[in-house]
Design goal:
The complex is a heterodimer of chains A (about 500) and B (about 650).
Chain A: H1 6-25, H2 31-47, H3 50-54, E1 64-72, E2 77-83, H4 87-104, H5 113-132, H6 136-145, H7 147-157, H8 162-190, H9 197-202, H10 207-224, H11 233-240, H12 243-268, H13 270-296, H14 301-320, H15 325-356, H16 367-370, H17 372-385, H18 392-407, H19 409-416, H20 418-434, H21 441-444, H22 451-469, H23 472-475, H24 479-490
Antiparallel strand pairs in A: 1-2
Chain B: H1 3-24, H2 26-59, E1 63-73, E2 76-84, H3 86-109, H4 116-135, H5 139-157, H6 164-195, H7 200-207, E3 214-218, E4 221-224, H8 225-240, H9 249-252, H10 258-267, H11 272-279, H12 281-284, H13 288-310, H14 315-335, H15 339-366, H16 384-398, H17 404-418, H18 424-450, H19 458-462, H20 469-495, H21 510-517, H22 521-528, H23 532-550, H24 554-561, H25 563-570, H26 575-621, H27 630-651
Antiparallel strand pairs in B: 1-2, 3-4
The chains are: A mainly alpha (about 500), B mainly alpha (about 650).
Chain lengths: ~500, ~650
């Protein structure tokens, strides 16, 4: 094992950088300092995660880059970090997006930029903590703490109804979190005064207890994913959040819920997971179909993409709960891809919003005439959102459909309707915004993307295409961990 | 890398390289650079395809290897790889040849368009996608190419993106194709679920053992697995190859510039479905039920789409409906297990239909973008090369010997005659009647455009001139195979062992019977000239000559007399109206209802804001403790949780 604590670095480097930005970058005259400092911190935070990929042993299903030290010995709470082939991807994804949101905010955020950038850096570190924590309480602390910067970002830099949106999010999250904590404490007592997540995995539990634990954790994670019917906070949060907030919300924080299912629900309560799988699958399919239809009638671009996110995340949970490797790895790939694609979609909407100050589809029309470069990028991401082969958006949907068909033909049948609905809502929006004659003088006055925006979109375009053309490097490190997970889920605990 | 592999890679990658160069660096390399890059790319591909085809036919070369592993999960290996056999070789040559003609033609046709480089980039990209599709050795890559041609078609139909009709048509085309892909994807899923692989060779090997397998999708109803798989796959083919009721996108796709109508919506993309079913012949040969479905849908398309060709005035739409009808003929051939005949017709049709479309484009070009045949007439004198090549194309389409269409179409009819499949009587009637109608409308178009009075306005007449050589050269080059490919191809393609093991023919295939009766090309041609289809075609031409050359008052009289039928045809059997109201409208009503009642009223109104109101009432009491800053609340919450935890645990 390596001696450099890369995981700790990936958590604390952005947080320290965020604090430095606050200290040295606050004040109107020092916005430039804040920006460059934040960029340096974000890039450094990304660089320290690279060894996690290069040094990762793909054949092993064990936790790697582990760090362990007692934190609150009286309660047997430890600072225990480690990643496997599943969490690896989310630490990487999160760290990729931090520089992106910093650059996306560059000239756009004029109100207290230091605080804004610091919030993102701190949030980035905390989110890495969520994915790397192997101690339940440590997980819980990161899980709750990362909400604070997000609240601040929406609450201060958000739109006119930001307070409503933040409060809605808060209410949704509150109940679930407390139930999850109760479950942790129950497991702690069962495991002999131990908060180790891996110790929880090994616990033998009666079905009744498993079901209660499953539901308690479900309440917390389902809100995050979000699954139908606890999804209505997401469109509101997206609409009110500034661009960077939407990007992180869609690309990263939605993944925490799905990750929670894999790290907690499936291995801790496998019998309950099987018992409740029909319900989970039903909720997932409702998300795909119902939300797909709801997305079709949205008039606000951000709401439309938010609904499309919910629909796409339905594939993730569907893939997980058919319990076969194709489904689970498909779900994981869908999560990674959705990170790139939805992040890019929100950046694209941000590009338009910065110029027109409107998210309303009806205010646009004929953008391709004045912003051809932008239109090309937006086309690529729209197609990825519609799951076109050759883009990353295809792989997850394809594999989950194949995986779910092995469980039941009709699961796949309903899931595959996304081929039609996903294309319909995405392309219809694209048509109304980008194609056609120039709709009004505001559109006529639009300037095409600048070098900064071009660079951001080009990076994501490369990721979307690269993953679509050659996804194997993404799945190779997953196999061992996913196989172990499937073993854990097939093992009877009763 | 072996030399063979490099040669094979060159075929799709050369057009891709041209497309990237023209698309990404269009401004830097300029118009000439863009067309040179893409034309060189496609010409290279054609050259390499000819070399490979020569290897295949002269030396029995076969190739089936993976290039790289796209993804692997457990035992499932998804690869990108090439399968080269006679079927692939034929498709590669047809695709690259027609594509090259269209590229050259585009120099002339699009020379005034500001999107010149973008256009070249798209058509070269299309060539790449189509080549990946036909060269694939597995279902995954097939689906890649399948969707990629759909994408490029979307981009090209909406090429003039400021036109509302164009951007409506391209979305419609993409969505209708997606409905087909929906079935196709489920078919692929079933293949994987039952064979554990997506590799053609493995799947076809497995399929032999699955002939008797049943599958229960609805409790109490067991269906043959192969029937389910084949029908699902065929739904995909119905989308791409525009079979009823998924044909609605193709006529609208005429909104794109004419060169792509020739390339995509006549000669190549729409043939993807025909190619796919032929490639899957080992599967389709195991389900007579699925083949009968294919047969009936093909026959219906062949006949009913031909009717629509009669009443069109837009020159491109006449050709478009004839494409739909001819695709129906190919599908009929598939339905009676005559796969080699289907591919034969696919190839001859690719040549003469590309010719007709490009000819129509040449007319439109000369007429300053006028497409209505009522404003044409007498163009024969002004556009001699276009005229004579259009005559060749029309004769080929009408099925007059010795033009190419005669051989392929006659064989389809004979195959249906010899077939005993369920539905073959209906199909025989449809394809026979179709011959008459096809001959009628193709010559109606020829007469209305090139003969009779000059009905255009004075200004247009002043400027009429034959198109430049970049337009007429492809016409001439396409006229040659439109004349000769049938004559030369019929013996080897259908009656020789041309396809070898690439296409599987079951014991019931009428092709086997036809082979017994085969007595050479000359005999076949002479025999054809005494058979019913030939007379049907001649009478179609004669009727058309009477109505449009001798008695131009007759069509109007018939139109007035047959108002009801005319309205039905003019509204294209109301398919569009039905789809708009039921599917597009229905989805919006449903989505709106779910949004307002489900999300806004029940979930938000009832559950979320209801509990929020409850909290708010309670919070009113302790309001003074609150700072109003959300992060304070969050912090307090964590703090509180820790406090509770500590107390509880120490008690325990």
């Amino acid at each position: 094992m390596t001696t450099t604590p890369f995981l700790s670095l990936s958590i604390w480097l952005p947080i320290v950088a965020g604090l430095l930005v606050l200290i040295f970058g606050s004040g109107a005259q020092r916005a430039g300092t804040a920006r460059w400092l934040a960029l340096a911190g974000a890039v450094a935070g990304f660089l320290v995660t690279l060894p996690l990929y290069s040094g990762f042993a793909p054949a092993s299903s064990a936790m790697q880059f582990s760090e362990f030290s007692p934190w609150i010995p009286a309660l047997h709470i430890n600072y225990h970090l480690g990643i496997d082939g599943i969490s690896l991807w989310f630490v990487l994804l999160n760290s990729v997006f931090t520089p992106i949101v910093v650059v996306a905010a560059w000239e756009v955020i004029e109100d207290r930029p230091a605080q804004y950038l610091a919030a993102f850096l701190i949030m980035s570190g905390l989110i890495n903590g969520v994915f790397a924590a192997l101690d339940a309480i440590l997980f819980y602390v990161f899980f709750e703490a990362m909400l604070i910067p997000m609240f601040i970002i929406i609450g201060i830099w958000g739109g006119p109804r930001r307070v409503y949106a933040a409060l809605k999010f808060f209410l949704y999250t509150l109940l679930g979190s407390l139930l999850m904590l109760a479950a942790f404490i129950y497991l702690y007592l069962k495991a002999g005064s131990n908060f180790e997540i891996q110790a929880f995995h090994a616990l033998q539990l009666p079905l009744q207890a498993q079901i209660l634990i499953f539901i308690a954790m479900f309440m917390s994670f389902a809100v995050k994913v979000p699954m139908w019917p606890v999804h209505t906070w997401l469109p509101d949060a997206h609409v009110e959040a500034p661009t960077g907030g939407s990007v992180v919300l869609a690309a990263i924080t939605l993944k925490i819920g799905a990750y929670g299912f894999l790290r907690f629900n499936l291995p801790i309560a496998p019998d309950a997971a099987h018992y409740l799988a029909p319900v989970m699958i039903a909720l997932s399919l409702v998300a795909v179909v119902y939300i797909g239809l709801v997305a079709l009638v949205q008039t606000d671009m951000k709401k439309l993409v938010a609904y499309s996110s919910i629909s796409h995340m339905g594939f993730v949970t569907l893939g997980f709960f058919v319990f076969n490797p194709i489904g689970i790895e498909g779900g994981l790939l869908q999560m990674i891809s959705h990170g790139f694609v939805s992040g890019a979609m929100f950046l694209c909407i941000g590009v338009l919003y910065d110029r027109m100050h409107s998210r309303n589809i009806a205010d646009y029309g004929g953008v391709a005439n004045t912003m051809p470069k932008f239109a090309a990028f937006f086309m690529l991401f729209a197609m990825a959102n519609a799951g076109l082969p050759g883009t990353s958006g295809f792989i997850g949907e394809f594999l989950v459909t194949l995986g779910s068909l092995q469980a039941n033909f009709w699961y796949a049948f309903l899931a595959a309707t996304t081929l039609i609905f996903g294309a319909a809502y995405t392309l219809w929006m694209y048509k109304r915004v980008v194609f056609g004659e120039i709709a009004n003088d505001h559109v006529r006055a639009l300037l095409d993307i600048n070098a900064r925006e071009f660079a951001l979109l080009a990076i994501l375009a490369a990721a979307v295409l690269g993953m679509g053309i050659y996804p194997k490097p993404f799945t190779d490190p997953m196999h061992a961990s996913v196989n172990k997970l499937i073993q854990q889920t097939t093992l009877k605990k009763i | 890398m072996s030399a063979t592999k490099a040669l094979l890679l060159l075929i799709p990658l050369a057009p891709l390289f041209g497309a990237l160069l023209a698309g990404l660096f269009g401004r830097a390399i300029g118009r000439t650079g863009a067309h040179l890059a893409t034309i060189l790319g496609v010409a290279t591909a054609l050259g390499a395809a000819l070399v490979v085809a020569n290897m295949v036919f002269a030396q029995g070369f076969r190739y089936n290897e993976n290039l790289y592993t796209w993804l692997s999960i457990g035992t499932l290996q998804l690869n990108v790889g090439f399968l080269i056999d006679p079927l692939t070789a034929t498709m590669m040559v047809v695709v690259t040849f027609v594509s090259l003609m269209v590229h050259i033609y585009t120099i002339g046709y699009m020379h005034e368009d500001p999107g010149y480089q973008r256009f070249f980039s798209y058509i070269a990209l299309f060539t790449f996608a189509m080549l990946m599709l036909v060269m694939s050795n597995n279902f995954l890559q097939l689906f890649f190419g399948w969707e990629a041609v759909g994408l490029v078609s979307y981009l090209l139909i909406g090429f003039w993106f400021t036109r509302p009709t164009a951007v409506y048509a391209n979305m419609k085309a993409f969505l209708v194709n997606r409905v087909g892909d929906f079935g196709f994807l489920l078919g692929i899923g079933m293949v994987l679920a039952y064979t554990g692989s997506l590799d053609y060779t493995t799947v076809f090997g497995f399929a032999q053992g699955l002939g008797g397998s049943m599958v229960t999708l609805i409790p109490g109803h067991a269906w043959s697995l192969m029937t389910v798989i084949c029908i699902l796959l065929f739904i995909g083919a119905m989308g791409k190859s525009a079979q009823m009721p998924l044909h609605v996108w193709l006529p609208d796709s005429m909104e794109g510039p004419t060169p792509i109508s020739a390339l995509i919506h006549a000669a190549t993309m729409v043939t993807a479905g025909i190619f796919m079913v032929s490639r899957m012949s080992p599967l389709f040969e195991m389900s007579a039920t699925a083949r009968s479905v294919v047969l009936v849908i093909g026959a219906t398309t062949a006949l009913f789409m031909a009717f629509l060709g009669i009443i069109q005035y837009d020159i491109k739409r006449v050709v478009a409906y004839s494409t739909l009808s001819q695709l129906g003929y190919m599908t009929v051939a598939l339905g009676v297990s005559a796969y080699p005949v289907a591919i034969f017709h696919l190839a001859t049709h690719a040549f003469f239909k590309a010719l007709l479309f490009l000819g129509a484009g040449s007319v439109i070009h000369a007429m300053h973008h006028e497409q209505d045949m009522r404003h044409m007439g007498g163009l024969r004198k002004h556009l001699p090369i276009t005229y004579w090549t259009a005559v060749v194309g029309s004769l080929a389409l009408a099925g007059i010997p010795p033009f190419a269409g005669f051989y392929s179409k006659d064989l389809i009819i004979e195959a249906v005659q010899a077939s005993h499949a369920a539905g073959s009587e209906y199909a025989l009637f449809a394809v026979m009647a179709g011959v008459f109608i096809t001959a009628f409308y193709s010559f109606r178009m020829l007469f209305m455009t090139f003969h009779g009075d000059e009905r255009m306005d004075h200004h247009t007449r002043e400027h009429l001139h034959e198109s430049p050589w970049v337009i007429t050269l492809p016409l001439v080059l396409l006229a040659i195979p439109s004349l000769l490919s049938g004559l030369m191809g019929v013996q080897p393609l259908v009656f020789g062992d041309y396809f070898g093991s690439a296409i599987v023919l079951g014991p019931d295939s009428p092709v086997l019977e036809l082979r017994k009766e085969w007595e050479g090309v000359l005999h076949f041609t002479l025999h054809g000239m005494t058979a019913l289809p030939f007379f049907l075609a001649l009478s179609g031409i004669a009727l058309s000559a009477w109505m449009y050359l001798l008695r131009p008052d007759v069509p109007a009289a018939i139109k007035a007399r047959m108002g009801g039928i005319y309205t039905l045809l003019d509204n294209k059997y109301y398919f569009d109206r039905f789809n708009e109201v039921v599917f597009a409208g229905g989805a919006q009503v449903l989505g709106g209802g779910l949004f307002r009642i489900g999300d806004q009223t029940i979930i938000d109104g009832g559950l979320v804001n209801g509990s929020a109101a409850l909290v708010a009432r309670g919070a009113g009491l302790i309001r003074r403790l609150q700072t109003g800053f959300l992060y304070n609340y969050a912090f307090m919450m964590i703090f509180g949780v820790f406090a509770l935890l500590t107390i509880w645990l120490f008690k325990a």
